[in-house]
Amino acid sequence: MSARAAWPEVRVTWDRAFRLIRSIFPPIDLFEDIADPRDWEALGSAESKTNPRIAEGMGRLDLVPPGRRVSGPGASIVMAPFVHLSPDRPGRFTQGRYGVYSAGDSEEVALREVAFHHARMMRATAEAPGWHSQFRMMVGTVDRTFADLRERADCHDPDDWTTPQSVAADLRRQGADGVHYRSVRSPGGLCIGAFWPDAVGIPRQGDHYQLHWDGAQVDRVLNCRSKVEFGLG
């Protein structure tokens, strides 16, 4: 039995799907233009002859088939995790060899999930305590059928990602659009992990946030618009 056939599927329809990203990354003009995604390699190659940074900004376009790319205003946010990836930055459902667009069903889910991963990076680089890093909340939509992993306990282990990475890789090879699962960092919350850009809607920008690093964890979050600060304990 194939991995895809072994799992139930569920239609996920969210009018608001929350994804928190670093604010330092600018949009990639090529993705934001209305140019046909099938022409991106040729256009990028031509532009990179006068500006080598164009090719770097485009990332690994070869990992996304032209038919699964998205373009237009806001498309950079969707395309980025699929073209800028590394085995040095694995996730629950990827070893870093293919991209996953992760989003939660609430702002709190997105904040807590990202705070966990950001803390791992801060520990690894021995950053001093204090307010660090500007983030922005992107709010999109989801209306897609995903593999339903919500009842699979070993895909929700807090620390061991071996099983979910293996399951996700098999599902992706079998043609699944992504996975639906329970948030590990925000009890009661739900998440999706899309395997392709066209499996989610192009988001709009929401509020900006700062994360506070206390030397061991991200313990507080500041909403830069409302100036409301809240703990993550």
Describe the protein's architecture and organization.
This protein is an alpha+beta fold and 233 residues long. The protein has one domain (9-110, 139-205). The protein is 25% helix and 28% strand. It is built from six helices and eight strands. Strands 1, 2, 3, 4, 5, 6, 7 and 8 form an eight-stranded mixed beta sheet that branches. Strand 6 (204-213) and strand 7 (218-223) form a beta hairpin. The longest helix has 18 residues, at 107-124.
Keywords for this structure?
single chain, 233 residues, alpha+beta, eight-stranded mixed sheet, 6 helices
Chart the SSEs and their pairings.
Blueprint: E1 9-22, H1 29-32, H2 40-48, H3 53-58, H4 75-83, E2 101-104, H5 107-124, E3 130-148, H6 162-173, E4 178-182, E5 190-194, E6 204-213, E7 218-223, E8 229-231
| Structural class designation | alpha+beta
The total strand number stands at 8
Biggest beta sheet attributes: 8 strands, mixed
If you compute it from the alpha carbons, what radius of gyration comes out, rounded to the nearest whole angstrom? 18 Å
> Tally the helices: what do you get?
6
**What number is the mean pLDDT?**
87
Name the beta content range.
25-35%
Distance between the termini: 42 Å
- Counting structural domains, the number is 1
**Share of helical residues:** 10-25%
* H-E string: EHHHHEHEHEEEEE
Report the principal-axis shape: globular
